[in-house]
Design brief:
By secondary structure, the chain is mainly α. Helices cover about 50% and strands about 0% of the residues. It has one domain (about 10-95). The longest helix is centred in the middle third of the chain and has 33 residues, at about 30-65.
């Protein structure tokens, strides 16, 4: 699974896979449907946590950027590769 992202940085992917595998090994069931549900639920928690973290980073960053500033950035600005809300744009790209 880690090889699916061939170029570094893969830190977040490694961390998420480790978290999911830890969950699988901690389950006390061999019911494939139960394992699948647990994995999907955990993946959703990871995605939700990521959005919240990125919103907070955006809010903190917004306090440092003057009004009408222009900023050029090149990584993790949001969809589709970063759960819809990357830390580069934080709350400004998707919040009212």
């Amino acid at each position: 699974m880690l090889a699916a992202r061939p170029v570094p940085p893969r830190v977040n992917l490694r961390w998420a896979l480790d978290r999911l595998m830890h969950l699988v090994y901690s389950l006390e069931t061999e019911d494939v449907s139960a394992v699948r549900r647990a994995l999907v639920d955990e993946a959703q928690r990871i995605a939700d946590e990521d959005v919240e973290i990125n919103k907070r980073m955006g809010q903190h960053g917004a306090e440092l950027v003057p009004a009408n500033a222009r900023i050029l950035h090149h990584c993790n600005t949001g969809c589709p590769g970063h759960g819809g809300l990357g830390h580069g744009l934080g709350r400004h790209s998707h919040s009212p």
